[in-house]
Request: fold
Amino acid sequence: MDGRSFTTIRAQRLRQSRIRKWADLIVQKGFFYRRLVRPILDLLRQGVTPEKLALGLAIGGALGVFPALGCTTLLCTIVAIVLRLNLPAIQIVNYFVYPIQIALLVPFFRLGEKLFRAAPLPVSIAQIQGMIHANAWAAVRFLWTTTWHAIVAWGLIAPVFVGLAYLILTPILRRVLRREVTPTVETD
Reply:
C-alpha cells in the first residue's frame, strides 16, 4: 500500500465520480453541446490545430468581454483576419461570453476609475441600458471617459487571461483531438 487509508481512496473515487457526472451533464446533447462543444469538435475534425483553436478561443473570450458595447464582433473579425485564426471559433466564444460582458461592464468601469483616480460614476447596468435605449449618442458622450478608463483596465487584464486560457485549453484540446477526433486503429 502507499500509506493512504481505504476511506481516503474511497472518498477520492466518490469525488471523481461526481466530477464525471457533472461533466456528463454539461457535455450531453443539450444546448451547450450543440452550440459550443460540437462546433469545436467539428473544427478539430476539419484539421484546425489544437494550438490555433485554443488561441482563437482564448482571444475570443477576452475580446468578448471588451467593455464597449456593440463592437466585439468587429474586433473579433479583425483580430481573426490579422492573426489568421479561425473566425468561427472566435465568434462562437464571443457570442457565449456576451452575458459575462454585461456583468463585467460596471466592474471594468470601477477598475478604470481607480486606475485613473477618477470620480466614480454612479451608474448601474439598468441605467446604462436605459440611456442607450433613450438616446444612444447621448449615452456614448456621457460614458466616453469612463469607457476609455474601462478599456485601459481591460487592456491590462486581457493579456493575462488570454495566456492562462491558452495554457489551459491547449492540452485539453490535444486530449480531445486524440480521443474524440482521431479514429482508433483496431488490431487483430
